[in-house]
Specification:
By secondary structure, this protein is mostly helical. 90% of the residues lie in helices and 0% in strands.
C-alpha cells in the first residue's frame, strides 16, 4: 500500500512539475511574441517616417521646380501630370527610392 501511495505521490509531483514547466514555456513564448510585435511596430513606424520624409522632400523639390517654370495653364498641367506619374510610380514600385 505504501508503495502505491508513494507512486501516486511521485506521479502527482511529476505532473505538477510538468505543468509548471509548461506554464513557464508558455509565458516565455508570450514574452517572445510581445518582443516580436513591438519590434515589428517600431520597424513599421520607422518605414512610415522615412517614406514621409522622402515624400516631403520630393514635394519640396517639385514645388521648387514649379516655381522656376512658366505659370501658364498648359505648362502647369504638364508639370502636374509628370509629377503625379513619378510619385505614383515610386509609390507602387518595389524598387527602393
Amino acid at each position: 500500500m505504501d508503495r502505491v501511495l508513494e507512486a501516486e505521490h511521485a506521479t502527482a509531483s511529476a505532473i505538477a512539475d510538468a505543468q509548471a514547466a509548461a506554464r513557464a514555456h508558455i509565458e516565455a513564448a508570450r514574452e517572445r511574441r510581445r518582443v516580436i510585435l513591438e519590434t515589428a511596430r517600431e520597424r513599421v513606424v520607422d518605414l512610415h517616417e522615412r517614406a514621409q520624409r522622402r515624400l516631403e522632400e520630393t514635394l519640396r523639390t517639385l514645388d521648387a521646380r514649379a516655381a522656376a517654370l512658366p505659370q501658364d495653364d498648359t505648362s502647369l498641367a504638364a508639370i502636374t501630370d509628370a509629377a503625379l506619374a513619378r510619385v505614383a510610380a515610386r509609390l507602387t514600385s518595389d524598387e527602393p527610392a
